[in-house]
Specification:
alpha/beta; Arc Repressor Mutant, subunit A; D-Maltodextrin-Binding Protein, domain 2; 7-stranded mixed sheet; 11 helices; elongated
Length: 354
């Protein structure tokens, strides 16, 4: 005779629990939460009042058995005993009021209702698995988002750090933007950035680490190599200067102006642009000369068309070099930030502060 289902026609709980020991008193049913560790009891026998998490546990047991089709193998996959899995399936059938599986000596087979219900439940359980795994990866820093600001002077050291980080944490979503140093630090304090590669200033309210040093470089077309041999060449004074807009890079433009004042150069023509790469292209095209970050131009230009001359700070001249720091919030507990800082410490030796 077939077994009934539903609240009134459900299985005898004492029969299920006492099958292994007929003389034992009936004990409350124990239900189990799916984790990556062995199953743990989570509630008592009042199934109609169980939480949504408990329902997900039962549905996951059903999906696993429905996909595998074998109680022993499904129980092993779930990390529970076979009797526990049997109880979970029986409980779910009680709640639904309908049989999910045919049981026979040949094995376990879904009923027509079970097949239809499996199609509905599978996406939910698979999405729950995905979210669970994502949470674990985010907690360990293996997944998540990281917003980074940088200046052109930090381009080389930043790309070196990002390549090492992406190799180790490929699932982290990276965003980065070329922003002036002061704006970066403001955005970092406002939590609009997670990491800032900015001019070294030792901002006391932020955690920081020195990562690079840089200096000024004179950049001019190769066709002028015969008349411009140094920063003191008279021909330099006759050339148009291509400079960044003051608002774009106020700190760097201050260094440029100190150099011009020191050499007594008053360009007869100045072109202002928004980006350093535009400066390079205009110099390459022969529209003038430029003073730029030495570290950023040495590897991205065609030396057959452009000449780069380093300009060092003289003992009697103004400071024409500077340092770049990595900044982050002291109270930031984002695992992705901690993972990035670890990569930076491993990949970028800290230069000696000057």
């Amino acid at each position: 005779m077939g077994r009934g289902f539903g609240r009134e026609g459900g299985p005898d709980r004492a029969r299920l629990q006492g099958a292994a020991n007929p003389g034992a008193a009936a004990r409350p049913a124990r239900h189990f939460r799916w984790t990556n560790t062995p199953a743990l009891p989570i509630d008592g026998p009042d199934l109609p009042e169980r939480t949504s998490m408990s329902r997900i546990d039962l549905m996951r047991a059903f999906v696993t058995l429905g996909e595998i089709g074998n109680y022993r193998a499904a129980a092993e996959s779930l990390g529970v005993t076979q009797p526990t899995l049997t109880k979970q399936i029986v409980r779910l059938e009680d709640i639904l009021g309908h049989q999910l599986f045919f049981r026979s000596r040949q094995g376990t087979e879904l009923t027509e209702f079970g097949r239809a219900y499996l199609r509905e439940v599978q996406p939910l359980i698979h999405e729950a698995d995905r979210i669970w795994d994502l949470g674990l990866r985010m907690a360990s820093g293996d997944a998540g988002k990281l917003a980074i600001g940088f200046t052109f002077s930090a381009l080389e050291v930043m790309t070196h750090a990002l390549l090492a980080f992406r190799h180790t944490y490929p699932e982290v979503e990276l965003s980065f933007d070329d922003i002036s140093s002061q704006t970066q630090l403001s955005m970092l304090r406002e939590k609009r950035l997670d990491i800032a590669f900015a001019r070294w200033s030792g901002a006391g309210d932020l955690a920081s680490r020195l990562v690079a040093r840089d200096h000024l470089a004179l950049v001019y077309p190769a066709e002028l190599a015969g008349v411009i041999t140094s920063a003191d060449s008279p021909a330099l004074r006759e050339q148009p200067f291509i400079r960044l807009k003051q608002a774009i890079a106020p700190g760097f433009e201050g260094v440029v102006q100190r150099f011009l004042d020191w050499k007594g150069i008053s360009p007869h023509s100045t072109h202002r642009v928004n980006e350093s790469l535009v400066q390079l292209r205009m110099v390459e095209a022969g529209f003038g000369v430029a003073l730029m970050h030495a570290s950023s131009v040495t590897r991205i230009i065609d030396h057959s068309r452009i000449v780069v001359q380093d300009i060092a700070s003289g003992p009697k001249g103004p400071a024409l070099d500077w340092q770049t720091g990595l900044y982050w919030r002291r109270d930031d507990r984002n695992p992705v930030v901690r993972a990035f800082l670890k990569i930076v410490r491993e990949a970028i030796p800290a230069p000696v502060e000057q």
